[in-house]
Amino acid sequence: MKKKLSTFIFLLFIFVFSTQIKIEKKELPSKYKKWITEEVVYIITPVEKEVFLKLETDKERDLFMEEFWRQRDPTPGTPRNEFMEEHYRRIKYTNENFGKGTPLKGWITDRGKFYIALGKPVLVERFNASEIYPVEVWYYQGNPKFGQPATFRLLFFKRDGMGDFVLYNPLLDGPRSLTPLVWGGTFYDQDKTAYELIRGGVSIDLAAASLSSFPGQGMSFGSGWKIRMPSTILISEAHTFPHKKVDDDYAYEFLEHEGIVEVSYSVYHIGSRYRINVLQDPAGLYFVNYALQPENLSVDFYEDKYFANIKTSLRVTEHSEKTIYQRERNFPIELRKDQLANIKERPFHLYNSFPIIPGNYTLHILWENTVTKEFTSIEEKLLVPDSYSLQMSSLILADKVNDDSPYRGLNKAFQVGGLQIYPSIRNVFSNTKPLFVFFQVFALDKELSENGVLEFRFLSGDKIIKTVQKNVDSYKSSQNFLEEILLDGFSPGKYRIDVAFLDDKGREYMQQAEEFSVIKETVPDPWIVFQTEVGAGNPVYSFILGNQFLNKGEIYEARKKLEDAYKREPDSMGYALSYARVLLIAEEFQRAKDILIPFLKTKEGNFGVFYFLGKACQKLNQYREAIPYYHEALSHKGDVVDVLNSIGECYFEIGDFEEAKQVWKKSLAINPEQEKIKSNVEFLIKKKQKLG
User: Fold this and answer.
1) Measured between alpha carbons, how far is 558 from 580 in angstroms, rounded to an integer?
2) What does the pLDDT look like over 589-640, one tens digit per residue?
3) Are the C-beta atoms of 437 and 499 separated by less than 8 Å?
């Protein structure tokens, strides 16, 4: 009998790391250690692996290895085991053909891993062009019987043109990773430029493969995350395809006793629930607050500790998928056995928040447990109001609040001042506990503050079963509204709450609604993981919001925010670079130069410092000064086309036409599709011929 550890948290003791630890503890003989960690590492199921590591004698291990191959034999009863022969042929092939020029053995490389797991691809396309790093596209025919697509492809490339080929992920790597010719701007802009470059200058099929692992898809860049996410799921599952061809229940029977905890290597997309609300803090900054509940959380086990690491990658986009803001966060989790026992029956919630400027956006969040490779994703529309028009936020329903948060003064998700709200993600409440309703009203005028009325209506279907009215001036704040509602008279079922904002004549100005359910049972408190960040007075928020304004093209607002961040922390190179960037756009070239020069003295200069200094000097017609700055920028990032072209322009302006021609030729060698640069070179060649 296989056993699961909990309903809400399915604990999976997993991963190669754990296997290696157990090997060391058991002092596994080298023959068996090599078998488990090298020879069958890509095809053995997690259950088989755990059972094998529990065996105590060499005889038992030998018998298990025989049974392992017997379970995979396509022609049992014959002397040959074609599966085993093919498997060792694949290992031999990978060691002879992959990993050349690197310290890696072929079977360890990404190509080796998938060649061993999936076999020889039906077709391999190789691309070696000046516009891209070396790339291979492997095409496979899948077997739908085992949950595989009928056809799929895997793309491998040499990252930065060096080392061995690595597996490409359309979502996490993006077309920008395939070419050295694209840099600067947002990831979206880089990916779009790279996609068009590959499509127009290398191969339409390769461009499609850079967006999708499914042939026939990826022909249009505008598909965005929706076309890339299925490919990420496929890639995460592809190396587990061999596991689906064997029923590993035999491994448990091999041990001849019960009570063994299932070991499962999880690399799957999992479902999730979430709650997202935009709230304004007391300083007037808007924050996107989200609480996310995956359908299960897996943990690994080592030396009496249970651990996981949650990584969130979020992106905020405007229309046409223009990126306004993006960031990553890690939430490490480590638990003792007693702590695990205390929370294993409780739902796991992850809280986080980030500042945002007013506008209409789409929020994309990718949530990954980096220990187990489980991941989930969400996409939600966001409306961030301005501070000048009367508006009402969406409702937050909670079964718990704390009006004296110990994190007062810090930024924490679902915290407003000293009030901490614990939202219900599922909106399920017990009729033995009160329901808390929280919302905000923006730009409330004096008349409504003094004479307005809030009406709370509770409906079952279309029938109003309870109404509560309260004067607006009875609340402590004219922006933050918290109401406690007793549910003891509510029978189990589904309900809706409508909150309406009325004037003194009963006219409705605003209204928000939220559905919820009532049950008799006690709703377990969630296990919450969160991070606090600095309070709203920190200059980092001016820096973040300034860059958001800059990404939206709102230069005036961006300049104000970035200048504020820089003036408050002038020694921060990050603040200085962003401020210099907006100054260059605003054509304040001397000011940009002045704020960057000090970073040369502190020896903190990086590519951005030298590049922006070069741009500032060039715009100030200080060409001889600009040239060494540009060359220093190249020393940090290699031959960048835009920098080479700028150097050529500076040489041209000071009359050094031969140097200008040579630099532009170098730029064309990297990207031949530059008509303006071609014309410049041809002009200089003809000019030299005339001077003859």
Assistant:
1) 11
2) 999 999 999 998 765 558 899 999 999 999 999 999 999 999 999 888 778 8
3) yes
**Angle of the 110-118 helix axis to the 82-97 helix axis, nearest 10:** 160
pLDDT at position 595, please? 95
Residue 517: the pLDDT is: 96
Distance CA 470, CA 484 (A): 12
C-alpha span between 152 and 140 (Å, rounded): 5
Angle subtended at Cα 430 by Cα 427 and Cα 431, rounded to the nearest 5 degrees:
120
Q: In what order do the strands lie in the sheet with 348-356?
A: 272-280, 286-294, 348-356, 527-529
Q: Dihedral sign for Cα 440, 446, 450, 455, please.
A: negative
Q: Which amino acid is at 676?
A: K
Q: Which domains does the chain have, with CATH numbers?
A: 272-529 (2.60.40.2550), 565-691 (1.25.40.10)
- Report helix angle 641-653 to 607-619, nearest 10: 30
- C-alpha 465/C-alpha 456 separation (Å) is 11
Per residue in 169-220, pLDDT tens? Answer: 988 889 999 999 888 778 888 899 999 999 988 999 999 999 999 988 877 7
Amino acid at 157: F
**CA 525, 526, 528, 534: dihedral to nearest 10 degrees?**
-60
CB count, 10 Å around CB of 534?
12
